[in-house]
């Protein structure tokens, strides 16, 4: 009976004690930049608080993420032939265009954004090549045996990395121009008569002419997004084919 009493006491202590014997999953994070990273950082901190392991995969030209700083999680850095100030410069150009609104014509702003997005797309393609075609990096990521990929879809080829590593995905999206990703990829309800498209200054209370303008802006952003997606089709097919037939 004395032995039984001791066992019961130990059992109660085990139940009531704040003991962390469980282990969470291993999460690979592919973050965005600026406010996108700030938004995702909250998720990362909560994952760590819940005893998950987190590895943040970041390129060497990130203008936002200080990967030399000591953190509770691990950074894994891959090299790209770019500098942080070059990446930041494109973001500054986009911000300058936004700050012009509504001074120039909406058509002029739309053309400027489409031209700039083409440059951003080429920059992201370079980063994708450095990540996806880096056999050493892919082998290391595979060996780390992640359970899930948390990524910002503003990074062009994050889903390709998930395909290569055969990982389930969780998305964290701050915002996209014209709600393009939210509407076309996430099926977000966004009736143009009631939901103003960013980065316009209209509210959900629009006059008839404002609704017409809002519809036109929706069409422009939707067209630009479709065109950008079409130009990426060949790249995605090329990378997946190389990955599929890559010798073990």
TrEMBL record:
Pfam family, one: UDPGT
Top-rank taxon: Eukaryota
Keyword Transferase: yes
A GO MF label: glucuronosyltransferase activity
Name of the protein: UDP-glucuronosyltransferase 2B18-like
Signal peptide: 1-24
Similarity comment: Belongs to the UDP-glycosyltransferase family.
UniProt keyword list: Glycosyltransferase, Signal, Transferase
Gene3D superfamilies the UniProt entry points to: Glycogen Phosphorylase B (3.40.50.2000)
Organism: Carassius auratus (Goldfish)
Record flagged with keyword Glycosyltransferase: yes
């Amino acid at each position: 009976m004395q032995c039984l009493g001791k066992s019961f006491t130990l059992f109660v202590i085990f139940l009531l004690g704040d003991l962390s014997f469980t282990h969470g999953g291993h999460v690979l994070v592919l973050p965005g930049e600026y406010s996108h990273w700030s938004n995702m950082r909250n998720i990362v901190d909560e994952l760590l608080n819940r005893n998950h392991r987190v590895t943040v995969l970041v390129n060497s030209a990130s203008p936002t993420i200080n990967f030399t700083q000591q953190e509770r999680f691990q950074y894994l850095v891959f090299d790209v032939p770019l500098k942080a100030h070059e990446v930041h410069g494109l973001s500054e150009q986009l911000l300058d265009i936004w700050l012009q609104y509504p001074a120039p014509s909406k058509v002029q702003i739309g053309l400027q954004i489409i031209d700039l997005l083409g440059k951003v797309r080429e920059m992201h393609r370079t980063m994708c090549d450095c990540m996806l075609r880096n056999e050493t990096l892919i082998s290391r990521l595979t060996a780390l045996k992640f359970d899930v990929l948390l990524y910002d879809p503003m990074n062009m080829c994050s889903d390709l990395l998930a395909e290569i590593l055969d990982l389930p995905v969780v998305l964290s999206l701050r915002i996209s121009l014209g709600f393009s990703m939210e509407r076309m990829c996430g099926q977000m309800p966004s009736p143009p008569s009631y939901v103003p498209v960013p980065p316009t200054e209209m509210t959900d209370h629009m006059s008839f002419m404002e609704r017409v303008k809002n519809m036109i802006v929706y069409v422009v952003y939707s067209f630009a997004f479709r065109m950008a997606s079409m130009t990426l089709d060949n790249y995605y097919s090329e990378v997946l084919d190389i990955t599929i037939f890559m010798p073990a």
